[in-house]
Amino acid sequence: MTEKPADRRSAPTVVVAQSPDEFAGAVAVQVKRQLHARSSSVLALPTGQTPIGVYAELSRRCREEEISFVDVRTFNLDEFVGLPADHPASFETYMMAHLFSHIDIDLAKVHIPNGNAANLEQECRAYEREIAAVGGIDLAIVGIGANGHIAFNEPGTPFDSRTRVIELTTSSKAAHAAEFGGIDQVPELAITMGIGTILQSRRIVLLALGADKAEIVARAIEGPVTTDVPASVLQTHPNVLVMLDRAAAANLHIAQ
Ligand code: GLP
Questions:
Q1: What domains can be seen in the chain, in order of their start residue?
Q2: Which of 57, 76, 78, 251 is catalytic?
Q3: Distance, C-alpha 108 to centroid of its chain
Q4: Whose CA is closest to atom 9 on ligand 1?
Q5: Nearest to 137 by CA among 54, 74, 46
Q6: Any catalytic annotation for residue 253?
Q7: Which residue minimizes the CA distance to atom 5 of ligand 1?
Q8: pTM to 2 decimals?
Q9: Is 78 noted as a catalytic residue in this protein?
Q10: What span, in angstroms and rounded, lies between the C-alpha atoms of 230 and 154?
């Protein structure tokens, strides 16, 4: 594993793992350190392909009693609007399958935006209130979309945005087409935590894997801070760790 602070003032630290196991282990260690510092930590959690190995590793460490989630509170970053919670492609189904059913977390302390709320605006405001009520997010783990989105904050999203309903872009719908059996079946809307909400987290870990992410990772980490690349805003946060594999790091200057 190579670890280099990026070559700019206050730029994120970048960790490049040499294998999927090393990546999952290194992210799990970040979570473990957080839970050791505060057993009742508040975590923001992503979905997607990228964290699957990380969740498997956290599940293993929990099973082997190396870490416990008993007191942990979690807030998922996003959820589709209008899917039953048990829909195979809902983020709730994903989280149960990959993490929550394998760890000792109290499901009463798990929060996922309710995309079926009768009043979605109220649901978004309530989500913000719940995050504030537990003292804010200690550690946000976020992925990055091919278009630079974090959670479902698509290009053009203001950096001070809060939890809200958004319309999915074609790029994001295409990324989920397979799970829904075609792009036409992907919901038009989702609830996402805002960029402003994520930025208030005390610590942020950005994850990316694979060559498909190399270009957008370089733009996000080494390019200008711009709403065209939502993840680029992370350059302005004082405590960000970027965890990549070699393929995702390939376009970074610091990797050369
Ligand atoms: C999804 C989610 C994001 C996720 C991103 C990358 O649509 N809304 O939270 O980080 O896209 O997903 P993947 O890890 O599958 O590339």
A1: 2-6+13-255 (3.40.50.1360)
A2: 78
A3: 21
A4: 151
A5: 74
A6: no
A7: 145
A8: 0.95
A9: yes
A10: 7
Neighbours of 37 (CB within 10 A): 11
Q: Which tokens belong to 135? A: 């003292």
Please give the distance, rounded to the nearest whole angstrom, from the Cα atom of residue 145 to the centre of ligand 1.
5
Contact 233, 140 (CB under 8 A): no
Distance CA 100, CA 103 (A): 6
| Residue 213 CA, closest ligand 1 atom number | 16
Residue-wise pLDDT tens digits, 132-183: 999 999 999 999 999 999 999 999 999 999 999 999 999 889 999 999 999 9
Rounded to 5 degrees, φ, ψ at 139 are -135, 120
Closest CA to 67 of 97, 88, 38: 38
**How does pLDDT run across 38-83, given as a tens digit for each residue?**
999 999 999 999 999 999 999 999 999 999 999 999 999 999 999 9
Select from 23, 47, 142, 191 the residue to mutate for testing ligand 1; criterion: most ligand atoms less than 8 Å from CB.
Answer: 47
CA-only gyration radius of the chain, Å = 17
Residue type at 20 in one-letter notation: P
Known active-site residue 154: yes
Q: Is 147 a catalytic residue?
A: yes
